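thought: fold this chain, then report.
action: predict
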Amino acid sequence: MSNWKIKVSLFLNYFIFAILLNTVGIVIAQVIDQYQISRITAGSLEAFKDLSIMAASFLVASYVPKIGYKRTMLIGLFIVTIGCILIASITSYWVTPLLYISVGSSFALIKVSVYSTLGLITKNQKEHTSLMNTLEGIFMVGSLSGPIFFSLMINTSKWSDTYWILAILSSLAFLLLLLTELDESKVHQKSEESSFFEMFKLIKSPLVIVFIFAAFLYVMIEQSLGTWLPTFNKEIFSLSAAQSALFLSIYAGSIAISRFLAGYLSKRFSWFKLQLLYLILAASLIAFVLLNSMGVKFEPFEYWFQAPTLAFALSLIGFFLGPIYPTICSIVLSKLQKIHHSSMTGLIIIFSALGGTTGSLIIGLISDNFNIHTAFYFPIIPILLLLLVLIPYKRISDKIVIEENSNTV
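observation:
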């Protein structure tokens, strides 16, 4: 198998879904203005996405080895292409939740297959962690590119026209994957062991239990910040809709840079010490920005580079959050046999989706009852909780040594 070809295909798939998944905040701001809906209703778009991810993962993840990783990814790309065409063609709010249902369900198929494929093309934990961080770095490059696309379309046409570009990209990704070979023989030999109850069996493991808490908390942090950052920048720092979209790119870009850097650092330094340092700095940065912007009225400005320094600082918080998720995911997958990777990825997706939905809805609820500035204190709580959870996660994971032919979880 030519690993570089499948890596390019995986990177492109992740790039496309990064754009779709991480521009919810921009879409929320646009549908509020265009369709005059409440913030709670608009915030539910995150729930449509995340609950669809969770449902698809729960129902399908354990069967992916039987379906085949490549075939599953092709199905996901086809579904999302149709969703993009629909929202680009029809001007009505009901198409928006339909889009996120298609995006969520197809991303579940893609992520289960992609994460499982990593186990086939890497040889050890350090290589797995390095490639995982690179993959998630590509994901954040997509997250960075998405707001730029939307910003250009908002200024030149209309926001929904962005989905014509995404429909074309997903079609190209479908063709590339179709023409790419993937050797799945190692998994096919044991695919009969896969069953719907595989995920429930994994939850018996103390490592998996602690990981679930860690993943839930991390995605709660990242999604609550990423989803509502455009609204925060618009209301607190007086950025326009296009400028807010651009600053979301800075947030995504900082995550991407940190993940690419982590791909290098993970081979040379202790992942645990790095994660603790990142979390402490992230909590400190949020507190610093909020305390220094409290009660301050920022005037509108014409050019993005004239934005307040605090707006740039808050967007750069992604640098401290970026490496955490791919690293903790890589650790748990590296401790499992390859046949269990799809089921474990299903659990990763389910609890990540729950964390993302919970975080976004909490920020929306607090901002509706108080204000968006007060709501942004909330992420500090899960940051501190995650810091504490990583301690037993490190201790348990260090005790597990996995042999591919053993029955150990």
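thought: worth noting. DSSP finds 19 helices and no strands in the chain.
final: tokens above.
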